[in-house]
Amino acid sequence: MAEALYIPQTREKNEIYQAVLPQIRVLIQDEPNLIANLANIAAALKEAFGFFWVGFYFVENEELVLGPFQGPVACTRIRYGKGVCGKAFAEAVTVIVPDVNQFPGHIACSAASQSEIVVPIIKNQRVQMVLDIDSDRLNSFDVIDQQWLEALAAMIAAL
Ligand code: SME
């Protein structure tokens, strides 16, 4: 297993994802424990991009329950359809929010969070969990993040 993450010193996020995703693949490929792998993925994304919060919520009894994450303490449970995470869960689509203050129903786990992306992880046609990333800056996420993070979600679904 890699002992340290190699992160290219660039502001070009395509390049960072391109360098980091294969390292994540190596990091998780021989480890069967899902929690261990999700914990390392959250850590890798936070370290690579300096996001404010990165973590997973598991679908459990039709609500979301907090899983491995990196960042400040967060809401433990999110109901179906509530907030950005609940929308990604209910609609099984990636949701990008450029300004969380403009998103009706946004659940503010921290007032510092300004923009957010939530990617569903779908297996057997069902959302099993969501990957939630928060930034403390506005407009941090776009289609580039969406494409790479959906590729990561597919990698996780295959675990
Ligand atoms: N803001 C999210 C809640 C989770 S925290 O950001 C970690 C939402 O509206 O679903």
Total of helices: 4
Overall 3D shape: globular
CATH architecture annotation name: 2-Layer Sandwich
User: What is the beta-strand fraction?
Assistant: 25-35%
- CATH names the topology as Beta-Lactamase
Fraction of residues in helix: 25-40%
- CATH homologous superfamily annotation: GAF domain
Side-by-side strand order of the widest sheet:
3-2-1-6-5-4
Order of helices and strands: HHEEEHEEEH
- Give the tally of β-strands: 6
Main sheet properties: 6 strands, antiparallel
At the first level of CATH, the class is: Alpha Beta
User: What low-confidence regions span 5 or more consecutive residues with pLDDT below 50?
Assistant: none
**How far from one another are the termini?**
17 Å
Number of domains: 1
The average pLDDT value, as a whole number, equals 96
User: Which compounds are bound in this model?
Assistant: methionine sulfoxide
Rg calculated over all Cα atoms? 15 Å
The helix/strand class is alpha+beta
Tell me what you see in this structure.
The chain is α+β, with helices and mostly antiparallel strands. It has a single domain (13-157), classed as Beta-Lactamase, CATH 3.30.450.40. Helix content is 36%, strand content 26%. The chain is built from 4 helices and 6 strands; from the N terminus they run ααβββαβββα. The chain has helices spanning 13-29, 34-49, 83-91, 143-157; strands at residues 53-60, 63-70, 77-79, 95-97, 115-123, 126-135. Strands 3-2-1-6-5-4 form a 6-stranded antiparallel sheet, sandwiched between helices. A hairpin with a 6-residue loop joins strand 2 and strand 3. Helix 1 (13-29) packs antiparallel against helix 2 (34-49) and helix 1 (13-29) packs parallel to helix 4 (143-157). The longest helix is centred in the first third of the chain and has 17 residues, at 13-29. It is globular. The protein starts with 12 loop residues before the first helix and ends with a helix. The mean pLDDT is 96. Bound molecules: methionine sulfoxide. Methionine sulfoxide binds next to helix 3 and strand 6.
